[in-house]
Design goal:
The strands form four sheets. Strands 3-2-1-4-6-5 form a six-stranded mixed β-sheet, sandwiched between helices. Strands 9-8-7-10-12-11 form a six-stranded mixed β-sheet, with helices on both faces. The protein is built from 20 helices and 26 strands. Helix 10 packs across helix 11 and helix 11 crosses helix 13. By secondary structure, the protein is α/β, with parallel strands linked by helices. The radius of gyration is 28 Å and the shape is elongated. Strand 11 and strand 12 form a beta hairpin. The protein folds into four domains: 119 residues, ATPase, nucleotide binding domain (Nucleotidyltransferase, domain 5); 210 residues, ATPase, nucleotide binding domain (Nucleotidyltransferase, domain 5); 107 residues, no CATH class; 85 residues, Barwin-like endoglucanases (Beta Barrel). Bound molecules: adenosine-5'-diphosphate. Adenosine-5'-diphosphate binds next to helix 10 and helix 12.
Length: 587
C-alpha cells in the first residue's frame, strides 16, 4: 500500500510516500519557510499533494505530537478526533496547531482517502502510574493534565521492534533501554513490549540534554530564571538556547562541537561530557527500574553516527554486563539496508545495538494498519473493569418463595449493562459451614436462578462452586437461600463466575476477537500488576464494553472501585506471544 506520511511542523512540512510492502520511500521532500511571505500550511500541503499525486497514495498518515490521555494507538481521523486533538493544544501549543493545519488541508484536498493520526505520545500512554505521576498536588495535576506523557514513541517502538528481530527474541521477553539521540533526545525503558518509563515528560523539555533543550533541571532553577527573565524569555532560553548549543556556544550540531573539542575548546568538551553523563544516568536508572537490562539500543542522528559519543556514554558499564567492542563501535555504519549493528563484545551479557530509526516507515505501517481496518494484538484502548460482589439472580418461582407470591424486585441502582439493575432485595446464603447475609439480588428476573460467589465465599459457606459462564448452571453446586418470606433449596445454580468481557460486535472487531474466544488481560499501572488468563469474550449488540471480575480477582490485582482499566493483550489460540508472556511473568 502506498502511504503518504505528512509531518507538519510550525515552520516546515516534511513528507514521504512509502510503499509499506517494501518499506521504501518512493518520494520524499520538505517545504520550508511556512509563515514567511505567502507560504501557509495550506499552500505547503497543496505543494506536497502535487508532488505526490503520481504515486496515488491510498491513505495519509499524519504525525501528531500530543495525543493527551485519549489516544493509545494510531487513530482514523474524523471530526470528533480533530476536536480531541484541538483539546490537547494547551499541552503542545507549538506542535498540535501545526499538525491540525496539515490534517485540515490534506483532508480537504483528499476527501476520499482515509486519514490517520499517529501520535508521539501513544506508545507511552500505558506507563505505570508510578512512572507517569509527578509528585505534586494530585488534584491540581489532574485538573491541568500535568503528568509525564513522553514523546518519540514512534521511534522507540520502531527501534525496539528491530532490535528484538535482530536478536531473534520475542520482544515480550526483553528488557530494553532505547536511546533516541537526535536534535531532540529521549530514553525509554521497555518491558513486555511496552514503554514503562521515558525521560521526556509533560513536554519534550525534560530528561536528556538535547541540541538546544536543557533536559532535567531543578524546577527551582526555572522559577529563578522566570523571576529574572520573565516567562517568555525563560521559555526561549530553555527550549532554544540551552543543551549542547547553550553549553558549547557553538550551535547544536554535535559534529562541530566534536571538532572543536578535538582542538581543545573547553566549552565544547564540557558540552560533550555533560551530554554523555545525562545519558549514563538514565541507563543506570532504567536498569534499576527493570531489575536488569538485556539490550541497549542507540538511535537518532547522534546515536547512529557518533562513535565517540557512544563510547563516552557506554564506558565503565561492565558491572551491568555492557561491554563495548571498540572496533565494532568505531566501524558501525547503519543504513536502510543494514539497519542494525551489534557493537558489543561477544561475551557481553547485554547486547548494545546501533539501530537506524525510521519514524516515517513506522508511521506509514501504523497508518496502513488502521486505514486497512486490519487488527493488531495492540488493543484500541484499555477495557473498563467492573468488580462484581457476590450476587443472586432469581426466576419467578424462586422470587415467589423468597419474597412472597407475586412480589417484584425494586431498583436500588442501575448497572452499566443496559436494563440490568441491583435490587433493594437481599437474601442470605446458607451452606454447610456458614452463612452470608445481605447478598444482593440482581434484576430483572431470569429463566433460572443463579448464585455467583467468590472462592473466599466458598470457604465461609463450606461449598465447592465450579467456575462457569453465566447461564451454564447445569450440574453446578447446590445452595440454600433464605428470604423474608421463605427458604429455597437449590439443587444446582451456585457458581464461581468465569471472568469475562462484555462487548459489542464493533468492539470485538476493533480488538480482533470473537464471541467465545478466551484472551489475556493485563492490569498495569497499579501496585500489583497482574495478567489474567482465560478471560471469556461475550459479544452482543446490547452489551457495553466492560470486563467483569469478582472481588478475589480484584484484590489480587489491587483494583478497587474507580481505578479500573485492563489492556486486552493476546488471543492465546493463535498467539505464540502469549506463551512467551507467561514465561516472562514466571521469571
Ligand atoms: P532530528 O531529531 O531533528 O530528527 P537527527 O536525528 O537527524 O535530528 O539528529 C541530528 C543530530 O545528529 C545533530 O545534532 C547532528 O549533529 C548529529 N549528527 C549527525 N551525524 C553525526 C556525526 N557523524 N557525528 C556526530 N553527530 C552527528
Amino acid at each position: 500500500m502506498n502511504v503518504l506520511v505528512i509531518n507538519c511542523g510550525s515552520s516546515s512540512v516534511k513528507y514521504q510516500v512509502i510503499d509499506t510492502k517494501t518499506g521504501r520511500a518512493l518520494v520524499k521532500g520538505k517545504v520550508e519557510r511556512i509563515g514567511e511571505g505567502d507560504t501557509t500550511h495550506a499552500s505547503a500541503v497543496a505543494k506536497v499533494l502535487e508532488d505526490t499525486q503520481a504515486f496515488e497514495p491510498a491513505t495519509v498518515g499524519h504525525r501528531v505530537v500530543h495525543g493527551g490521555e485519549r489516544f493509545y494507538d494510531a487513530t482514523l481521523i474524523d471530526d470528533e478526533v480533530i476536536q480531541a486533538i484541538e483539546a490537547n493544544i494547551p499541552l503542545a501549543p507549538l506542535h498540535n496547531p501545526a499538525n491540525l493545519a496539515g490534517i485540515r488541508s490534506a483532508r480537504e484536498a483528499l476527501p476520499s482517502v482515509p486519514h490517520v493520526a499517529v501520535f508521539d505520545t501513544a506508545f507511552h500512554l500505558r506507563m505505570p502510574r508510578r512512572a507517569k505521576h509527578y509528585a505534586i498536588d494530585l488534584e491540581v495535576a489532574d485538573r491541568l493534565g500535568i503528568r509525564r506523557y513522553g514523546f518519540h514513541g514512534t521511534s522507540h517502538a520502531y527501534v525496539a521492534g528491530l532490535a528484538a528481530e535482530h536478536l531473534e527474541r520475542d520482544i515480550a521477553d526483553l528488557r530494553l533501554i532505547t536511546l533516541h539521540l537526535g536534535n531532540g533526545a529521549s530514553a525509554c525503558a521497555i518491558e513486555l513490549g511496552g514503554s514503562i518509563e521515558t525521560s521526556m515528560g509533560l513536554t519534550p523539555l525534560e530528561g536528556l540534554v538535547m541540541g538546544t533543550r536543557c533536559g532535567d533541571l531543578d524546577p527551582g532553577a526555572v522559577l529563578a530564571l522566570a523571576r529574572e527573565l520573565g516567562i517568555d524569555e525563560t521559555d526561549d532560553l530553555l527550549n532554544r538556547r540551552s543543551g549542547l548549543a547553550g553549553l558549547s556556544g557553538l550551535g547544536n550540531d554535535l559534529r562541530d562541537i566534536e571538532a572543536q573539542a578535538a582542538e581543545g575548546n573547553d566549552r565544547a568538551r564540557l558540552a560533550i561530557t555533560v551530554y554523555a553523563h545525562a545519558v549514563r544516568r538514565y541507563i543506570g536508572a532504567y536498569a534499576a527500574v527493570m531489575g536488569g537490562v538485556d539490550a541497549i539500543v542507540l538511535t537518532g542522528g547522534i546515536g547512529e553516527n557518533s562513535a565517540q559519543m557512544r563510547r563516552r556514554i557506554l564506558q565503565r558499564l561492565d558491572f551491568l554486563g555492557i561491554r563495548l567492542d571498540e572496533d565494532l563501535n568505531h566501524d558501525a555504519k547503519v543504513s536502510a539496508d543494514t539497519p542494525v549493528v551489534d557493537i558489543s563484545e561477544e561475551r557481553a551479557l547485554v547486547r548494545t545495538l546501533v539501530v537506524a530509526t525510521n519514524e516515517e516507515l513506522m508511521t506509514a505501517r501504523q497508518t496502513a494498519r488502521v486505514a486497512g481496518g486490519g487488527t493488531d494484538v495492540q488493543s484500541p484502548g484499555p477495557v473498563p473493569i467492573a468488580i462484581s460482589g457476590r450476587h443472586v439472580h432469581l426466576d419467578r418461582a424462586s422470587m415467589d418463595v423468597l419474597f412472597g407470591a407475586g412480589s417484584e424486585l425494586t431498583v436500588y441502582r442501575n448497572l452499566s449493562q443496559p436494563g440490568q439493575f441491583a435490587a433493594r432485595e437481599t437474601v442470605t446464603l446458607v451452606g454447610p459451614r456458614g452463612r452470608i447475609e445481605n447478598v444482593r439480588v440482581l434484576g430483572p428476573l431470569r429463566k433460572a436462578p443463579q448464585v455467583e460467589i467468590s472462592r473466599t465465599d466458598e470457604f465461609k459457606l463450606g461449598v465447592d462452586a465450579p467456575v462457569r459462564a453465566s447461564g451454564k448452571t447445569q450440574g453446578s453446586a447446590p445452595i440454600t437461600l433464605e428470604g423474608p418470606a421463605g427458604t429455597l433449596h437449590l439443587k444446582e445454580g451456585l457458581i464461581c463466575a468465569w471472568r469475562h468481557i462484555h462487548m459489542t460486535p464493533e468492539d470485538a472487531e476493533a480488538y480482533g476477537v470473537e464471541n467465545g474466544d478466551q484472551v489475556e488481560v493485563a492490569i498495569t499501572g497499579g501496585d500489583r500488576d497482574l495478567t489474567f488468563g482465560d478471560v471469556l469474550i461475550r459479544v452482543k449488540d446490547s452489551y457495553v464494553l466492560e470486563m467483569h471480575i469478582d472481588t478475589d480477582e480484584a484484590n489480587a490485582a489491587e483494583l478497587s472501585k474507580g481505578n479500573t482499566g485492563g489492556d486486552l493483550l493476546y488471543q492465546p489460540p493463535e498467539s505464540a506471544a502469549s506463551a512467551s508472556l507467561s514465561r516472562k511473568r514466571a521469571r
